[in-house]
Amino acid sequence: MVSQSMRNVGVFAHVDAGKTTTTEHMLFKSGTIRSLGSVDDGTAQTDNLDIERQRGISVRAATTSIIWRDIYINLVDTPGHVDFLSEVERSIRVMDGAILIVSAAEGVQSQTETIWHALRSLSIPTIIYVNKMDRVGVSVPDVLEQIRRLLSPSTVPLQVPQGAGEDFTGILPIWNTLQDDQNSELDLSTVITSVADHDDELMLRYIEGEHIPIEELQNRFQSLTKSGHLFPLCFGSSQRDIGVAELMDAITTYLPSPMGDVEAPLSGIIFKIERDKAMGRTAYVRLFNGYLRNRDLIHNVTRDIHEKITQIRKLEGRKFVDLGQVFSGDIAAVYGLSQSKIGDVLGSTVGVPSSPEIAIPLLTVQVHVQDEHRYSDLVEALQELTDEDPQLDLQWLQDERELHLKVMGAIQLEILSSLLMSRFALEVTFDQPSVIYKETPTKSAEGFIAYTMPKPCWAVLRFQIDPLPRGSGLVYQSEVRSDDLLIRYQNEVARRVPEALLQGLHGWEVTDLKVTLTEGEHHVWHTHPLDFVVATPMGIMDGLANSETTLLEPLLKFRITTPEEYGGKVLSDLVQMRAEFEPPSIIHGRIMVEGILPVATSLEYPIKLRSMTGGRGVMSSSYAGYQACPPDVHVDRPRRGVDPLDQSKYILSVRNALS
After folding, report:
1. Which residue from 31, 430, 471, 594 puts its CA 20 to 30 A from 169's CA?
2. Contacts of 91 (CB under 8 A, 6+ apart)
């Protein structure tokens, strides 16, 4: 079985909560690095890219390791800015525990909530660390109330802050307080009542006035935190090195060691790919079962290919160390996997958790290179960057010589521009980003295609297309017997359906539908497997033409806080942007309003809000799904390639391409 002396921990937070500073202090206190780096000075250990050092923000998830109290801890420091949420999404999947950092000054922000819900969807045990306790205006009761209201009422303070704001001097362990002091939210009775909520026997003893031994309470609390029922809350100021050691103690005590079996068949996942100047393409792998060794030939289940491992390394402090082997539960940098991609499963899917979907690009943008002679260089560079961040989803339209990317926001475009210049010496410009719409069937309908001419070919398909609720995605099934349509032909149809739905009647991806293959026919002499590559898009588009499609627009969940005197103007703006929102609340002279609004109408509003309020108004937002556009909104996108509805032209085009 996996060693109990290991932890895999992700560090997550909203931007500017002090995440990288906290990680830096952990590295220093553990003795992994000899001198403290600084985010402001561009010397932080986990900020490896030039742009990260220049801008003082994390762009990529950074993996490192420390040893604390004889426990080996793999730490993954993730970006805090919403534009790089894809890095967070990939990291969460491979963690056994998490630290969620909340700024005591700013409180729980939109990114904090998004990450929290993703952690809960995977039941990952989590420690909440309230950082920046020394900031002016910090109120411990306000922070506690907000955390319990917006995150979880099962949050339990492990420490009592000694002062707050400028008067913050340190922390006192909750275990040093009294059990019978019922007048404070920060004493031992808080721990007892929280544990007792999950333990009827202990609750009865507590009600009857029995003294609960500290050691017993600690053991029960530890069990409940490792199982994700209770969430320890720590306080500190990482910049002043207050609370960091106690946070590291909490990691070793309250977060679980990885599960898994070294003797079981190999099971792992690639969650990060980067380029090393000396070593080349590096795949970061988390093993759930089994082991990897140099020169092993491993099976990539996702792509059904085999690749040979050439080297295995691990980052310890500022340098890589050659391992030669890595065992279940651990994380390592693996070399030789030239064809494998992020998200690929190695060996077996047993024990590999699903991935939360929190990073949804809502904008698309076209990229241009300043020097047209370097167009092919730009193609290669963008392919390499998409390999490292699949969410970019590079669309290369070779005939039109167009390059399109999916992005999260303006900051990501700035970072991409800087990366292309610093890494590839390419100067680029971007068109104005446009919103990514989607389509969905308006009603149920059938699609039919009999592809029997010009010979030789034979593929007959009938599809039933049904709309599904928002967020359902694509559901595909076949009701056709293998006697009527061979399984290998049915598999070809199943592979082609998602491709056929990438462009609907209005040119956007079609989603939230069920496609059922109800009829299929092949010919014993005339049918070739490629016939179904040609026929499937025509059958699907015929069904969409019969069902018609409804345009869907992306929505944001937002929270705006602004001085009270700007409240009326903000509410008026929200109405103009077609927002739906709750009645606003007023707290300490500031108005706060929450709701949902379309991305298309609010792209520039954060800038407008800051300008209008002199920088005192703040808007935070996160993805909230898609909904049907109002009837007066019409946004068509030019179709790429020949429309399968023009069957004669489409058949000629595809047959020429396939030949």
Report:
1. 31
2. 10, 61, 76, 78, 271, 272
Dig out the tokens for 385 from the structure.
């960057």
> Please, how many CA atoms are within 13 Å of residue 580, restricted to the half-sphere of its CB?
7
Q: Are strands 474-478 and 513-522 parallel, antiparallel or unpaired?
A: parallel
Q: pLDDT tens-digit profile of 631-648?
A: 999 999 988 889 999 999
In this predicted model, what pLDDT tens digit does every residue of 425-484 receive, in sequence order? 999 999 999 999 999 999 999 999 999 988 888 999 999 999 999 999 999 999 999 989
Q: How many other CB atoms are there within 10 angstroms of residue 400's CB atom?
A: 10
pLDDT at 37: 64
The CB-based long-range contact list for 120-124 (8 Å cut-off, 24+ gap) reads: 120/152, 121/356, 122/92, 122/93, 122/353, 122/354, 122/356, 123/228, 124/92, 124/95, 124/96, 124/97, 124/98, 124/228
Q: How is residue 461 written in tokens?
A: 């398909």
Structure tokens at 355: 């991935």
8 A C-beta contact, residue 23 and residue 80: no
* Bridge partner list, 446: 464
* Strand (E) or helix (H) holding 541: helix 530-547
Other CB atoms within 10 Å distance of the CB of residue 69: 12
Beta strands in 588-644, from DSSP E residues, in sequence order? 590-598, 618-628
**What tokens were used for 23?**
């990680």
The type of residue at 14 is H
For residues 303-325, give the mean pLDDT: 87
The tokens of 457 are what? 């070919």
pLDDT digits (tens, 9 = 90+) for 523-561: 888 888 889 999 999 999 999 999 999 999 999 999 898
Determine the Cα–Cα distance for residues 270 and 333; give it in Å rounded to an integer. 10
CA-based angle 161:167:171, to the nearest 5?
20
Over residues 326-375, the pLDDT tens digits come to: 999 999 999 999 999 999 999 999 989 888 777 788 899 999 999 999 99
- Look up residue 598 and give its amino acid: P
Containing 587, the helix (H) or strand (E) segment is strand 585-587
CA angle at residue 404 from 411 to 654, to 5 degrees? 160
**Quick one: which of 159, 164, 310 has its CA closest to 233?**
159
